[in-house]
Fold:
Amino acid sequence: MSLSPEEIERYARHLVLREIGGPGQQKLKSARVLVIGAGGLGAPLLQYLAAAGVGVIAIVDNDTVSLSNLQRQIIHDTKGIGRPKVESAREAIGRLNPHVRVEPHALRLTQENARALISGYDVVADGSDNFATRYLVSDACFFERKPLVTAAVGGFDASLTTLRPFEAGPDGKPNPTYRCLFPEAPPPGTAPSCEEAGILGALAGVVGAMMALEVVREIVGFGESLVGRLLLIDTLAMRLETLRYGWDPDNPLNGATSPR
Structure:
């Protein structure tokens, strides 16, 4: 896809980066990205993907904007209270970058619709707020062979990683799955919700922006991805740490005895 004169000016700071340049910007323009959730993580993620010039951005969210969202979900505003988040986000993206096409999906992901929806996109970014959805999305991305950028935030801490378990690493072993990192969800009631535990609004912005960076990396291809690495963020100590994790041969998706 060629860039128009207006797009060349809009993306000028990308175009002078040797690691992106014209070919990388064209990849962004032709890319189709699916974002799960238009909440705390999805809000900054969607804005930076739109600003970066991703050609098609799909949004999955069945919730409406509430006043308590606005402390961190900065793609929405006070006038949008009560509106579907996918529509509020779609309008905000349109104001930011008219070259981006938004595909809103005002629905909840289920076992019945996840794979069909995910199959239509190049990269998936999961900003959901519960383990059930994270496992559902990661499994569907494995079977549909789609790269997944996934993150989670707590009150003052967060984590971020990228998954490509349908491919092998340099050592010839399969890349790890989400289930290699977290074999089982925590028991019900042990992981407090955002409403119960609270969340630092700016932390969601930081992590959502990092997710956008990783999505752009997956599309363009530069530097070292977070495949097999878990980025941990502790804002109380203002510390970032990266842990390596590997393939678990007992995992049910691409384990040693699992059907592939």
Summary: The mean pLDDT is 95.
